[in-house]
Amino acid sequence: MLEVIIMNREDFNMLNNVIYLDNSATTLKPKLLSKAISDYYNNYSANAHRGDYDISLKVDSMYEKTRHLVREFINAKSTKEIVFTSGTTDAINKITNGFFKHYLKENDEVLITKSEHASNILPWFELSDTINIKVNYIPLDNDLKLTLENVKKVVTDKTKVISIAHITNVVGDIRPIKEIIEYAHKKDIIVLIDGAQSVGHMNIDVKDLDIDFMAFSAHKMCGPTGVGVLYGKEKLLENLHPTTVGGGMNSSFSSENIRIYNDLPHRLEAGTPNIAGVIGFGKIIEYLNNIGMNNINNYEIELRKYLTEKLKQIPEITIYNENSDSGIVTINYKDVFAQDLAIYLNKYNICVRAGNHCAKILKEELGIKNTCRISLYFYNNKEDIDALIKALENPNLKNEII
């Protein structure tokens, strides 16, 4: 029995047509988002930070209101610490190329895990090619979880950065980042957190966690695509070189190559941004605040328990992360290719993700290349899970796939 009930399904038109269980890839968007974006394009579609007329000033106000909402949402110290990007990938690349490319020296070491998303691995590989740093891996436990003890095993005097997801997108483990960060800071190690899978699912307090850098995306928390956030402590962002330059990020420049860039955060936001998306994202943060992040987190935990108990009753199902405590459940069906299972479920209008989930080296730890991922959000319910279980219990499942 689910003790926490969140009744917001009527806000999502797509739930009339599908059972959507692919929320780690992207979430559904409530009707208020398209209304906010349409309102901008139809009624005050001016540029931001460039005009002295009423509708442009209105855009400035609404754009910066979202920045204030984001600051409050993650409890950052200042809006100077909130930089809008196109997504998590863009934010991590800005951090690696704008800060660490200048901070790290040859043979310095960066620690990641093999369960990281490609966006938290490939930028480090690229940086390794450029400035000859070392990228090493923190070992995972047998259940693929990351512990502080395993971090301690591999930290050396060359370790300068730990870059890890708060919640991994395949295993779904919630990492003990507060303890890891506390330990890292005692060793003068900077910590970058990939918050793509956590920020929209639980309360995040960057000051309490003492996070140095964090990246996350709006589209994974009911917001628009093409909008992300780079959070960084102000003292670190002051040393982050702009990776993109142009309009909007400078106050002046001359033919003699004398340049004066704007203060934070605007010097890190060159060009015309995704104004409609940022304004829409502000409405989404207000929407999530009204539901309550603790309510969302508690509901997902209960729904996950219901899902895993049902899955455990199907002999053909292997659960790879039964003991995880997020809304991500990764499975396979005996003798059925993961993509075939996803295609089969699609016949019943059930949407799940199959493949390696952009964590292509996790197979070295998992021992299997492809899995089927079920990922929950607050608009899912018991009936969604019952429909999934019914499809998986179908005695003719393999015949229908063939």
Structure, described:
- This protein has 402 residues and is of the alpha/beta class.
- It has 14 helices and 15 strands.
- The chain has helices at 31-43, 54-74, 88-103, 122-131, 148-154, 177-186, 206-209, 234-237, 275-291, 293-311, 338-346, 363-366, 382-392, 397-401; strands at residues 19-20, 82-85, 109-112, 134-137, 159-165, 190-194, 213-217, 228-232, 250-253, 259-261, 317-319, 328-333, 350-351, 353-355, 371-375.
- A seven-stranded mixed beta sheet has the order 2-8-7-6-5-3-4, with helices on both faces.
- Strand 9 (250-253) and strand 10 (259-261) form a beta hairpin.
- Helix 10 packs parallel to helix 13.
Question: Which helices and strands, and how do they pair?
Answer:
Layout (H helix, E strand, L loop, with lengths): L18 E2 L10 H13 L10 H21 L7 E4 L2 H16 L5 E4 L9 H10 L2 E4 L10 H7 L4 E7 L11 H10 L3 E5 L11 H4 L3 E5 L10 E5 L1 H4 L12 E4 L5 E3 L13 H17 L1 H19 L5 E3 L8 E6 L4 H9 L3 E2 L1 E3 L7 H4 L4 E5 L6 H11 L4 H5 L1
Parallel strand pairs: 1-13, 3-4, 3-5, 5-6, 6-7
Antiparallel strand pairs: 2-8, 7-8, 9-10, 11-12, 12-15, 14-15
Helix pairs in contact: 1-9, 2-9, 3-4, 10-13
Rg over alpha carbons: 22 Å
Output the number of helix runs: 14
In one word, what is the shape?
A: globular
Q: How confident is the prediction overall: mean pLDDT?
A: 94
Helix content: 25-40%
Helix-and-strand structural type: alpha/beta
Our count of domains comes out at 2
User: Per DSSP, what share of the residues sits in E-state strands of 2 or more residues?
Assistant: 15-25%
